Amino acid sequence: MAHGDAALAAGGDGDAVMTVTSAVSTLDQVMQRWEPVIGLEVHGQLLTQSKMFCGCSADYIGSPPNSNTCPVCLGLPGVLPVMNRVAVEYTVRSALALNCEIPEHSKFDRKNYFYPDLPKGYQISQWDMPLSLNGHLTFTVDGEEVRCGITRVHLEEDTGTLQHAGDILQQARSSVVDLNRAGVPLMEIVGEPDLRTPAQAREYLVRLRQILVYIGVNDGNLEQGSFRCDANISLRKHGDTGLGVKVEVKNMNSFRAVHRALEYEIVRQGRLLDQGQTIAQETRGWVEAKGATISQRSKEYAHDYRYFPEPDLPPLHLSAAFVDRVRAGLPELPQQLAERLQREHGLSAYDAATITAEREDARAFEALVAAGVPAKAAANWLMGEVARLARETRIPLPGSGLGLDGLASLVKLVETGTINGSTAKELLEELYLAGGDPAAVVRERGLGQVSDQAELERLVDAVIAENPAAVADFRGGKEQALQRLVGGVMKATRGRADARVVTGLLRERLAP
Amino acid sequence: MTLARDQVTHVAMLARLGLSDEEVERYRQQLDAILAHVDRLQQVDTSQVAETAQIGGLVNAWREDVRGECLPVEKALANAPKRRRDHFEVGAIQE
Amino acid sequence: MSGETVGELGARLRRGETTPGELAAQARSALAALDALHPVLRYTEALTERQAGRAAQMLADSPEQAGPLCGIPFAYKDVLCVEGVETSAGSKILQGFIPPYTGTALARLLDAGAVPVAVTNCDEFAMGSSNENSAFGPVGNPWDPSRVPGGSSGGSAAVVAAGAVPFSLGTDTGGSIRQPASFCGVAGFKPTYGRVSRYGLIAFASSLDQIGPFARRVADAAHVFTAMAGHDPRDSTSSPAPVEPVSEQLGRGVQGMRLGVPREYMAEGLEPGVRTAIAAALAQLEKLGATLVEVSLPSTEAALSTYYIIAPAECSANLARMDGVRFGLHVDRKSLTDTYLETRGQGFGPEVKRRIMLGTYALSSGYYDAYYRQAQKVRTLIAEEFDRAFETVDALVCPTSPIVAFPKGDKSDPLSMYLCDVLTLPVNLAGLPGISIPCGLSEGLPVGLQVIGPRLQDARVLRVAQAYEQATAWHTETPPLPPAVTGTPS
Ligand SMILES: [Zn+2]
What is the ipTM of this complex? Predict the structure, then answer.
């Protein structure tokens, strides 16, 4: 059973077609007959200090309802917007990172529609003259290079948020509005319908998110919605160049949800088409609990946004010098960084990709290497124990008690043979949150490896004397018996001996 | 050209203006007359003319990214015709 | 204080013969006496008292540093926001709205020590040419209460014409200061677009709106303009260009100036009385040493159509925020859409609905290019024609309105009302400064002379107007207020 099939089985949203059993096809079967055409629209909140058109905070999470508002973002009569320069710069920065052109002239427009989370009754957005055009993003899925066009990256303002008295919108008798989010700078990245599989769509999003986080314009939080994705998907016969009727899918707030929702839609649409039915052009919402998309049919009146130039905002004229300055400020992008780490530090492609997945990890890696930690050791620690602790504690290394310097000193203690690996792991666990200087702790507690040759020899001799049976076994050819003896020495040193040295000494003593 | 009734009701719905039947008919006639006058615009040759959305010739009128003061919640909500605790309240969203 | 100018009142204040509080109280009773004309919607009460105290302190602290407006009472149009004072834009939908902030122009006047006394009646959301579209009832013209004062700033024009306050504030989107100034026989000045901040002005048409003063003397209008003008970081469309001091231009006369008379503005359609008064005014300007030059603004006829696409289009979006959620009228219905429909259907008056419909239509899918985009292009032509005219002349002089104040109810057909603005709205489309000053009477009703200047040449416009004012006595004519108006209000 393919993934999509499982989704369908769990779905059962009452859609009549879902109960038809005669034409049940799996995802694989559908994809043999039909080619999915997927385009993604991503909205990313910008990490500015203030909102797009007023001085309220762009960081609204956790503020009491309607406490992060002013006359401008409340849309009171008589107020006017003034655009945030940094929001424009961040959008241009993003567009450049996505290989877009930056036209000299652009402008803002009003997009008119009524909804309670939209205080002015129009959203200030960009229509026919966006800040950027014609970019692309290249990435690899299953060893195959995929190039997805970026139609445009433009700038607009976020809406407020609605809460409904019932948990289901359709049943809510009343809703309440919080405008803390209204007016937060929002960048829209419109992708071309160049994606052909859910896996490609997912990878596109992963890469896009990574870039935005790397260049410092977005925090990439899908759960809280600072990075949001809508998908357009249609099916067509393999080899066709035209486009089928497209369905817009919303409400996906994880990469996994995007993947599952697209699989679900492919199967749903494929089955309908197989039955000779037509696809309704509509918006559907992904319902995680049901594992299904549900039509967001409502008594909606045909949209007509009546865009026109925003008369309250003079147009933008971005000179070549402005664009060059933003370009010069672009940090190294993840792909470039991964290539450089392979080149300079001999990391494998896999390690380089893993280390650069999060910008924080890549920074930590470089800091460790700069502090004298060998590259391979730095990569292993970061990808292994440190990643686990960061996940479990939900605190990344730079913010932990140990910090980068602490980790560097800890790893160096291992590299110089002062402590062994298991001591280091224990110390990391202990100091990760609490903090402290690993070298000092090792000194104070005497955790350093027993490296005094005479001392070790004395302990080895004692263990040999106390374990005649094991000695006999070993001499009788049982290699494993040696491990028992090594264990005995380790126990006596409370793990502080170098197992390799101990093994060597034992072999020496027990040599025939 | 003559404006049809359903064009008037469509526009009224876009603008969220509840109109009585009598109003729809009155606006249909009045808008018709106004549009007949305004249609003179079509006779002006503007093939070589740029559009003017704004008159001042300003560009890049932006501000620095600096935090300003917010309103106290009570002031933000003071004019609300309906509120529930610290939210603005609206009726059922779905039809 | 009836009829005294800003200068006269300021002199009395500085001589210690009166106080800001006393002047405010006198203004208040003079305004109350106009009740039958209905130019005032509400008094600013606590704000008046506070601001009179502040002005008195400023005068006491340093009389020489206190500006010319310190302690002077005034009234402002019901579309300007002042923290804590109800602003309803002449509409039921905003009734009871109390702004939590003060707009820039008003804040600057308050900082100059001027004392607000009353909020004046106007056409709903400043849409109208007769003040008959106010949700709170029409305003009567002090010269003849059965006639309109013009609009949309009719209340502000009437209170100055009646001598109750020395100046007032209005807003001008297509003539809403100049036309009522003309109808009421006072000076009404619309500055260059972007010269006075629009922050705090409840928008009608954002690319056309501008705040400006009414006064009985050009010099007084200049004082008010000076106090309000200049760049405002809260209004992205406000001009960062420095404000040319008006004082350097006032009093220099028109000797040697070239004044253009747009042929199209003198065409048929002018009432004979208006034509006669304007002809005399032009002759007067020539006598003062100006050279009159006929110029042509061929797109004048298209301007009306252009305006009645662009202004309604912008207003259809600007008024979308009146949705009954955060402020104003809320008519509760079961569904959200019905709540919107009823709130807006009941809250807006007929003219506002008409313009929202017109603007929504012009922007809607399939009509945008034919109407809105074409209007924007014709707007370019109109602005270019003015530019070309100003290559050969220093300013334009012409009638403000083709007609004098008409009887209430006379223009029930919307199109005939719109035609009242043909001579004023091109100025808004081109963003130019323009003023109307009294230049005669036609059958006992005032006629206005309009002076139009190039962008940012506000001082020049005031200079030409003042030169004419000082050479004539029309500005001293006062309305023969009938007993119903001068008597004690009921
Ligand atoms: Zn705000």
Answer: 0.97
